[in-house]
Design goal:
Blueprint: H1 5-38, H2 48-97
Length: about 100
């Protein structure tokens, strides 16, 4: 369960990005479709710009959030590699002192 945690964090970052982008696109389309239903009462579709804004800003926010999560996984991976290298150096130093 706790093996390769950094790899799992990186995969989770990719999942968060794609789910967020897809949900932003679907939400934007739903907003625009709802606006087209209201256009019967108003003149023109007043919800096109808010729908496009949700698509663009939501996708961008999902991508940025996934970058932070992915960076955390990368930092975790690099820290584990450094710890492994330090442990190896300590073991080599300890074996040389005997």
């Amino acid at each position: 369960m706790f093996e390769n945690a950094s790899g799992k964090i990186k995969v989770w970052a990719k999942v968060v990005a794609w789910v967020g982008i897809l949900s932003s696109i679907v939400s934007g389309i739903v907003i625009m479709a709802g606006g087209s239903m209201m256009s019967y009462y108003n003149n023109g579709n007043t919800m096109i710009w808010p729908g496009l804004l949700v698509i663009v800003v939501g996708s961008l926010a999902s991508w940025i959030a996934s970058l932070f999560i992915y960076t955390f996984g990368d930092i975790s991976e690099q820290t584990a590699a450094m710890r492994h290298a330090i442990d190896k150096m300590q073991a080599d130093l300890h074996s040389q002192q005997k």
